[in-house]
Amino acid sequence: MRAVMLHAPGDIRVEDIERPTLVEPTDAIIRVTAACICGSDLWPYRGAEDVHGPAAMGHEYIGVVEEIGDDVRDIQVGDFVVGSFVASDNTCEICQAGFQSRCIHQVMMGSIGTQSEYARIPWADGTLVKVDGEPTEEQTKSLLAASDVLGTGWFAAVAAEAGPGKTVAVVGDGAVGLLGILAAKQLGAERIIAMSRHADRQALARQFGATDIVEERGEEGVARIKELTGGYGAHSTIEAVGTQESMLQAIHATRPGGHVGFVGVSHGVTLEGIDLFVSTVSLLGGPAPVRRFLPELIELIMTDQINPGAVFDLTLPLEEAAEGYRAMDERRATKVMLTF
Amino acid sequence: MRAVMLHAPGDIRVEDIERPTLVEPTDAIIRVTAACICGSDLWPYRGAEDVHGPAAMGHEYIGVVEEIGDDVRDIQVGDFVVGSFVASDNTCEICQAGFQSRCIHQVMMGSIGTQSEYARIPWADGTLVKVDGEPTEEQTKSLLAASDVLGTGWFAAVAAEAGPGKTVAVVGDGAVGLLGILAAKQLGAERIIAMSRHADRQALARQFGATDIVEERGEEGVARIKELTGGYGAHSTIEAVGTQESMLQAIHATRPGGHVGFVGVSHGVTLEGIDLFVSTVSLLGGPAPVRRFLPELIELIMTDQINPGAVFDLTLPLEEAAEGYRAMDERRATKVMLTF
């Protein structure tokens, strides 16, 4: 089968590799009908994470179930499914508490790769959610977004306790930040301040529900947020970048007693304990438990209440994945869909 | 009046200083009837915080109102009162959200000093809570504890979301950690694991509600907590020390999706962003908004439902404050009460 492989930083190739087979009785094999490139795929692509030989890429996917292991009960061959970027049993205490991304049996889909014609999905019953009905082209894009970026933005908004009466600040205008705005809006936030200096992303931010735009960054950005919130800071802040500057911007933009939801994968971030102590904000982040939200997100998508697929501004056939990576890397594209 | 002054690390003197007077119309002057020495007073005493010339010490107090400013409405001369270690207006948005320790008009009582015969209390209406009735000697000790260590332990337990069905781990067996145990018990926690290697403190921990004791520290302590919790970690962890080791112990002992309430004043603590990301725990800490809890705590004390005053294991007259500091420093005493 054809699959996207990273050989070295910047070196993306689409190659023939062996088609996956069932390994565990709880596995399923799906035929991937669409995949995409994630902002976090750029970390190894840019050399910010080590690359050890050719690595299968991708962790977002929708597809049709081709084969199931003997212990799979709820998912059937032929089901059209969406899954999280972390496979989870959905039965352990951590999953049951809604943190499926830290399931005791978790498997990171990025270690398997989904930018490929087929993919093995561990813990199929726990990981996959069946979609009923025939999604339109727009709904299909949105379902693909649900697999990671929507679910991650949603988690960030929930972790930041976005809701009625709240002012939400969003640090990061990538797909996750933008969908954090959509989530905050859907959760009832009163005011949503997008921190962005790119006109096209500002436009999408407003389309998703942003009421204010702040172009300043770092402590200047913090000062603007304070100005816009009567000196107090935001109630809820979504961090969707993962750098030292973005984390401090998020923490300092939040009022004491407020909440920061951080979902940008931390790279080189160190936080001073005394700064956290003095800030007195709640901090919750990590890999998003997308599985927790999938049934609700699928329902919102299939009833056209949300349109997260609007973040895809470039669609390419799988064979042109390398151009997709370049477009994301150079910020010519916010989010790239790969079709088969 | 007589007051405790720190001249240099280790150099505590009881001296005559000027009796405080009203400065702002929102101030009150109280005659302090009991004060105490806090674990956090030991940081400057030990030289871990800079000492700039003779500094008035203390921030915990109960007393009788002697004088009030023109704008004080709710507090009357003659009231017997308890106040928080942070003065707050109790009306700003931060106070109204329950984070009075970060009031936009906050005044740290430690910058004024309360180990003295009289003390000026800023924002008297916002800071002080009147106690009705005649407290017994035991209740008096407990009310004094409410001013900081009980309120701080209580906040840590609330921040850690201790409650029914939860396993709570407590890092730190000082007065705050011990009262965090009392709080967790009162909040309905199912199981409370005290991390302590001192027999007398273990005994008090059990008296306050601890069900298990773990003597190991650091990653060994974490491993023991995991063992005791089916491999998952605690749901809720109280951190009441403020060192690098104690913070990591608290974060790592907590299961994904769990909560850490940290109230030890951070000294030299740095946290890796990626460690927080992977841990996926909620982190909330800082100076405790004791004022939020005071009415409830006073009620619990005056109806003998809790006995936090049991943490005082040494009572000395104000004049012998230096011995009190030595006893705390050498861990001969858990908590010292100063009487007048």
From TrEMBL, chains A, B:
The keyword Acyltransferase appears for this protein: no
Matching CDD domains: FDH_like_ADH3
Cofactor: Zn(2+)
Domain Enoyl reductase (ER): 7-338
Coiled coil: none
Keywords from the UniProt entry: Metal-binding, Oxidoreductase, Zinc
Pfam families according to UniProt: ADH_N, ADH_zinc_N
Keyword Oxidoreductase: yes
InterPro entries: ADH-like_C, ADH-like_N, ADH_Zn_CS, ER, GroES-like_sf, NAD(P)-bd_dom_sf
Entry's family note: Belongs to the zinc-containing alcohol dehydrogenase family.
Name the record gives this protein: Zinc-dependent alcohol dehydrogenase family protein
Source organism phylogeny: Bacteria, Bacillati, Actinomycetota, Actinomycetes, Micrococcales
